């Protein structure tokens, strides 16, 4: 399995979840776990996804998700699970 952490942060707006999830589905990325909260007008979502069936290079998908975030006015970050774990190790 090729697990990746995707985070989405920014001001809440209509369609954030729909646009990100549609992109993932169109690219054969399976959502394994998802959590989202809204605090006042700020949106925060964290997803663990399986990119083993991704039909393009990881870097391209990451850049495309970043561009979707920019269109929506939010920040989208993708990190491979092993890098995320090493960065957040106590």
Any overview of this molecule?
By secondary structure, this protein is α+β, with helices and mostly antiparallel strands. It contains 3 helices and 4 strands. Strand 2 (30-39) and strand 3 form a beta hairpin.
Task: Draw up the topology in text.
Layout: E1 3-11, H1 16-26, E2 30-39, E3 42-50, H2 58-72, E4 74-80, H3 81-87
Antiparallel strand pairs: 1-3, 1-4, 2-3
Name the features.
single chain, 90 residues, 4-stranded antiparallel beta sheet, 3 helices
- The secondary-structure class comes to alpha+beta
Report the strand count.
4
The main sheet orders its strands as 2-3-1-4
Share of helix among residues? 25-40%
Helix and strand run:
EHEEHEH
Could you give a short description of this structure?
With 90 residues, the protein is of the alpha+beta class. 37% of the residues lie in helices and 39% in strands. A hairpin with a 2-residue loop joins strand 2 (30-39) and strand 3.
């Amino acid at each position: 399995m090729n697990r990746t952490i995707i985070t989405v942060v920014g001001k809440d707006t209509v369609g954030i979840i729909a646009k990100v999830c549609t992109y993932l589905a169109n690219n054969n990325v399976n959502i394994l776990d998802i959590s989202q909260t809204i605090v006042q007008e700020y949106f925060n979502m964290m997803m663990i996804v399986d990119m083993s069936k991704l039909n393009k290079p990881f870097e391209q998908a990451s850049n495309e998700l970043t561009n979707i975030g920019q269109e929506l006015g939010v920040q989208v970050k993708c990190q491979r699970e092993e890098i995320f774990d090493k960065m957040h190790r106590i």
